[in-house]
């Protein structure tokens, strides 16, 4: 079974080929056009997807070393994401599947982030999670604790009531003038800073839900107050600010995850989504593995932010269940799992 995966939900155009669960190729074209705007501009994103989609798919098929006639199905991200961006991938998938006479498989982007853990890089790669496991899904648009019972059975047991973790990184980075997306820059600077230099607010909410808007406000107020005394405050404290911000986000994330793991008595814990690239968060997972006996799953960097390999692997599982979709499948911008 050979699946072509297509991902175009936000600002990365990606295509991947997976054969029997094993990765053959994963091509990702980013979009530099958004950098000067401090965020993704939807109209520019869909235009860039239109330019990129054909060469990216062609490259993925070429690198996989296959002919397109060998494809069993086309899996595409149907949502959630930006409508204009999703339309490009969805329309391409329809045309491609119709011309080859192969089925189409719709993919939920968040489910795909979680299932990235099942991508095999070699046929004997056996490092996949076993069900049920907990997955902390932390990305630009979501922060959720998910109980994964099966590839197609996921329960969201906690989620953010306001901003996502990635958004907290990006927004705080933006006010420090660190560009977009700021998450990776904060991570890099944090490595040279003192995580205890500053204290920011942590939310007090019940259950497994998250909140990051209070942290963002408290970060902003710290900058505002300190800048009054010292106009060079940000410049002189960048590393410490980033280290303190990062450690606060990680602490918030891990506290609830720990609680969920304990209450549900699950020791198999994974992390997924763009923020799972964060080295401090990865360290915290290793620390929890050592301290609480967790069996942890941390994705390779290439499978953390948006990529089509996670779409193709999800497509592979759906293919085996003959879970195909009709030609009139329309993209959706918002949903829960
Ligand atoms: P969603 O998947 O919720 O629709 P998205 O697709 O935009 O959102 P991803 O591509 O999964 O999100 O992740 C992007 C986010 O990951 C951005 O907010 C970015 O700042 C963050 N990020 C990437 N690398 C790091 C890092 N090393 N440290 C912290 N954050 C990071
Ligand atoms: Fe994503």
Automatic annotation (TrEMBL):
Binds 1 Fe(2+) ion per subunit. It comes from the Bacteria. Its cofactor is Fe(2+). GO terms for molecular function: iron ion binding; tRNA N(6)-L-threonylcarbamoyladenine synthase activity. Its EC number is 2.3.1.234. GO terms for cellular component: cytoplasm. The keyword Metal-binding applies. GO terms for biological process: tRNA threonylcarbamoyladenosine modification. Keywords: Acyltransferase, Cytoplasm, Iron, Metal-binding, Transferase, tRNA processing. This is tRNA N6-adenosine threonylcarbamoyltransferase. The gene is tsaD.
